[in-house]
Description:
The structure is a single chain. By secondary structure, the protein is mostly helical. It has a domain at 1-40. Helices cover 54% and strands 5% of the residues. It has helices spanning 21-29, 42-83, 90-103, 109-118, 142-145, 149-152; strands at residues 9-12, 17-19. Strands 1-2 form a two-stranded antiparallel ribbon. Helix 3 (90-103) packs across helix 4 (109-118).
Amino acid sequence: MPDNLKTGVDKVTKAEIVINKTYQEMAQHYDTAVIPARVKAPKDKATVEGSVGRVQASILAAIFLTTHKVEQQGYKACMALLKLSDKYTAERLENACVKALSYTPRPNYKSISVILSSGQDKPAETQPPSSKSGEFGFVRGAGYYKGGADDAE
């Protein structure tokens, strides 16, 4: 219920109120009704403004509660991860988080816990190359091609 403004209202009679075409199109776009306040009827405006205040308060309360709930969920998730540091070192926990982030942009507690419990966070152990295999791991060597001559000895 807006004021009876001249730019929004084209004509006012006792029978009808003609609203500006553009104003009417905006109201249709937002799926709302425009009912201007009556001329020289200040009580109309106060009733509507009181309702707006109550609606605004309920919307702001809902936004606040939603935001607070999301913050609490984030806090609980962080605390659960930090609780893993009681069982594992900070270095292992950090490595598990890095590994989980390499798989998905949104790792969860379970994936990090599984990485830690299975030891996937530990760096892979490298074994020194054996002296028999030479420079490459798949070289068979001269003894292989002798046709079993080494076996006869």
